[in-house]
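#structure-requests
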Amino acid sequence: MQDVIDNLSSGRICYTTPLGTQLSGDSLNLLAELPANSVDLFVTSPPFPLLRKKAYGNEDQQGYVAWLTDFAKLAKDALKPTGSLVIDIGGAYQRGVPVRSLHQFRALLAFVDDLGYHLAEEFYWYNPSKLPSPIEWVNKRKIRAKDAVNTVWWLCKTKQPKADVSRVRVPYSKSMERLLRDPVRYYTPKQRPSEHTIGEAFGRDNGGALPSNLLAIPNSQSNDAYLRACKTLGLAGHPARFPVKLPAFFIEMCTDPGDLVVDFFGGSNTTGRAAEDLGRRWLSFELDRDYAALSAVRFLDGGEPKAIKRTVEQIAKGKSLAL
């Protein structure tokens, strides 16, 4: 990966791990400096165009699609022909009315129609622990149901991206477990009324069921290792984090060990942590040096709080460290 790092002349390295590098800088500049055909997978979650401004910065709805398309164009140039871009985009309402913004769908159309991406599949991240919002329409007036899903677009540069869904099998249901223990008792191979044929292979134990495109992953980790470390250090963690299981799903499905995974809206570097755990090389780009520095706590488990805080402070002040 050193050849890729060497190209990132305008980026500032915050820290490195055995498999990855966290950089602080403008992602548009950093993406432009990635070599062509060098990235196996982009996994990212950009700031959503929420009506309420957040500390980490978020674009308004009017210019959101054009703003995001600039990043997606550069990402496509850096992708390998077999590579993918996975982008998590949450929904929002229009200002002052209980009518939805269409930004995530307009972004998808721009990526496909204007940039030449292909939509491999749409996913929906279901967060069962998501709080009711927006307050005005859900809690007060009770005229809308609460948001519970984000759209996750799995886009590819060519029509045959690398993927193996058997790597991300999920546990069998209780009924399927009973069937596998005694297939003859529970089903007979034949054509169903739907004209689908259920053969003998249906009773084979494959180690888990194939997943659906509805990913049920709670984001209720209010006391996970990252936030515990931030609390111990007396520092405010990044307020917008997706759970590690979300990027891990796509990293496992779309890459092999040693492949390069990049997140150009790094935030607290959840993607980098997931990639490191799965044996993939990774790069994370984050505009805010303080957030980038703080993400180092994801790789400093078990260290003394004073030493961890000193490391974070050194990185925030511009020092580059190997963790």
